[in-house]
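ok so heres the complex, two chains, lmk if somethin looks off
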Amino acid sequence: MTLLSVEGLTVELPGSARPVLDAVDLSVAAGEVVGLVGESGSGKSVTARSALGLLPAKARVTGRVLVEGKDLVGADAAHLREVRTGVASMVFQDPRAGINPVRRIGDFLTEPLRLTKGWSKRQAEARALELLAAVGLPDPPRHLRQYPHQLSGGMLQRVMIAGALAGEPRLLLCDEPTTALDVSTQAEILALLGGLQRERGLGLLLITHDIELAAASCDRVYVMYAGRIVEEASAGELFGSPRHPYTRGLLGSTPPLTGPLERLRPVPGAPMSLAESAPGCAFAARCDFAEPGRCDQSPPRLLPVPGAADRSAACVRVAELPPVVATEVRS
Amino acid sequence: MSVAVAVLRKVVGMAVTLLVTSFLVFSSLYLAPGDPVSFLVKGRSPSPAELAAIRKEFGFDQPFPVRYWHWLDAVLHGDFGRSYLFHESVGAVIWARLPASLLLVGVATLLIAVVGIGAGALSALRRGTRTDKGVLLLVTVGAAVPSFAAAVLLRSVFGVRLGWFPTIGNGTGLLDELHHVAMPAVALSVTFMALVTRVTRASMLDELGREHVEVALSRGVPRGSVLRRHVFRNALGPIVTVSGLLVSGMLVSTAIVETAFGMSGIGSLLVQCVDELDFQVVQALVLLVVAVFVVVNTLVDLVHPLIDPRIAAGGGAR
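and the predicted structre for the whole thing:
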């Protein structure tokens, strides 16, 4: 069953020139790892937060966000709480900011269990100990009584993950879960998330700006640009033959593991801010392949790529673009 | 560093502060204009020999350091000297007037805590609404009204025109005393209330924007619990710090408010004794206010690590 199905989600904030999200379609099935890739401000985080009903209060929202078939747009508090405590949960980017610094780790883990499920203190603490062990922390009874500042960033992110697992969710939303961590810790956290996902058959939405990371850890990847999904493909296909010019640009601007750095090709220009808008393709101004008269008329729709099953791109010229070979991406 | 050592350090620091203050208090009064002897001999014109006898009797003939030492020695033994004005020991004079002032400061503190923190929290939660703007307006007005002006206004409206509250005196019996202390307490608290409201609002807004608040909401923790357990709880630090400063500020302001309402307390006593150059009482009162200030702030420092565990006791923050 589809755990999360976002359908035509549009989110507009008062005072911004373009929607924060513009007709976003996205789905995550049980047991599936889905990547959501894009630059800062592309709408990745807003998309993930919509699955918990955490959109800004002032936003105008149209479309649907189905979590296990029930729409969260306009849902009442009871329904939202049901989803947040038992169906979906989120691992946030920075555990230092995301865990209350003046409360003990034990409080962080047991709070939702005690306040929303009415568990006793003893029950909730027993569960917290299990969770801390499940995320690989060395000394759960001690951590329970520690304060966040007494743990390293990596350990604290494990606590954050344990907290996200407290309600036995089926959908785990990970918003750049490794960005705030040391490089050496990042791999451990990703391995932990992967292990937990397989063990528990979770649907996992991994938000990242690192396209190679997405390709390596996900089954399917969505690429977002300026509030729209511009490409969807299986991870292998996306990495091997990106079709949307923006995806090509992203792959070209990733530092190679070998070879000289001067061969990096950054995507020219800057991402579109909320104060800007374009009548046509939002990426046209930065695109090598943009064609006046075609790309700047109306926003391209996300359509299946001709001749490629199960992948879509939002580019009017997608069929005409020269094929990408791996060497060209990295040249 | 262990907690005991930290507490000990605070206490030693407190003692040093009080010692330095005692010196400043003692010396500043001798720099002030007016001669206590001229007060003692008021109306008469004694011969130089009589004057010298009076000086000797009160110890004014001795050099300054010696006088300071004698005074300090007596103070450390709980003897603040005798009041020229009341012909009683300074301790007895202050002790008789302390309860009334404590009641006044106590009621004012309660008002500040309930109204100030309440209005600040409400205003933060309703940011940008009419409620918020109304509170901000009152805060601006309140902060600008000096307590003597508030006293005059309250007396004329609620005391004279409406006749709800007595305009003068202390009252007898707890209920009557509370009735008498109501208006002075409001007059005393207005400015401080405005300050606490502003600090509470700012601190709450600061905490409302933190990511851990969103995280708690995302985990289904009910909004009321999030506000109580995460927003207000985390906002306490600045509120407690400001409140600590206020307590001694209020003690000083009792001088104005008690005089305005014709109450008998340590504030009006201070005014009276300054007027009459009753040095011994003034010294003791100033020392008392400073001692309260130092003790309260030391307590605030000691409480802070409980509010925010990141601050280790003694300031050795990580």
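quick notes: The first helix of chain B runs from residue 3 to 31. thats all i got rn
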